[in-house]
Amino acid sequence: MELELIIGIIIGIIIGLIIGIIIIYAIMKSRMKIELAKWKAEYEIDVQQRIGDARQDSVNYSRSSLKGKIGEQLAPLLPEFTEKYEPADARFIGSPIDYVIFKNMSKFDKNAEQNTPIEIEFVEVKTGKNKNLSDLEKAVQEACTTKGIPFEVLKPKIE
Predict the structure, then answer these.
(1) From the CA atom positions of the chain, what is the Rg in Å?
(2) Confidence class of residue 159 from pLDDT cuts 50, 70 and 90?
(3) Model confidence over 48-64: pLDDT tens digits?
(4) Closest CA to 132 of 158, 159, 153, 156
(5) Strand 151-154 relative to strand 90-92, pairing
(6) CB 106 within 8 Å of CB 89
(7) Are 87 and 76 spatial neighbours (Cβ–Cβ below 8 Å)?
(8) Quick one: which of 139, 88, 71 has its CA closest to 151?
(9) CA 31, 34, 39, 40 torsion: positive or negative?
(10) Which residues are paired to 102 by β-bridges?
(11) Per-residue b/e over 53-73, b at no fewer than 16 CB within 10 Å?
């Protein structure tokens, strides 16, 4: 009788432990699902925020780039340009250098006996925040300098 009682108690304890483990497992599983759902929601918000930031950065970079290209093309209208060059002598090529200037070309008269010689000069216009030459532009500048061809970097003040 005593042995049966001890076996009954042990079986009861084992069954109680098994039921307790099952209940604890179910509770922990439920909590983990809730935590996972929270983490996913926070992650989605973070991802959407990063996507929005990346889009805004892209738009800002695009605007800046477009402003720079517009500034380069409108450079012959700026005082810094017209002080040194005749806008009619300028030819925009865009890449690798913005302008080739044919000084005195606008004054050339095919019927004249004597014309002022036409001089060639390269001009790179830099607008915006980054006013440094690219590696390719530096290489062209070096080639011009080596050959004695005038090369100027024009940095107009555009607000």
Answers:
(1) 38
(2) low
(3) 999 999 999 898 888 87
(4) 153
(5) unpaired
(6) yes
(7) yes
(8) 139
(9) positive
(10) 120
(11) eeeeeeeeeeeeeeebeebbe
Q: Of 54, 52, 61, which Cα lies nearest the Cα of 130?
A: 61
* Domain boundaries of the chain, sorted by first residue: 1-71, 74-154
Taking every pair of Cα atoms in the chain, the longest distance, rounded to a whole number of angstroms, is 138
Angstrom distance (rounded) from CA 155 to CA 48:
39
Residues 137, 143: Cα–Cα separation, whole Å = 10
Judge contact between 106 and 119, C-beta under 8 A.
no
Which H or E run contains 102? Answer: strand 99-103
In 10 A of CB 75, how many CB atoms? 25
**What is the rounded end-to-end Cα distance, in angstroms, of the chain?**
101
Length of the chain: 159
More confident residue, 110 or 84: 84
User: Which of 136, 130, 61 shows the shortest CA–CA distance to 98?
Assistant: 136
- Structure tokens, 146: 């080596």
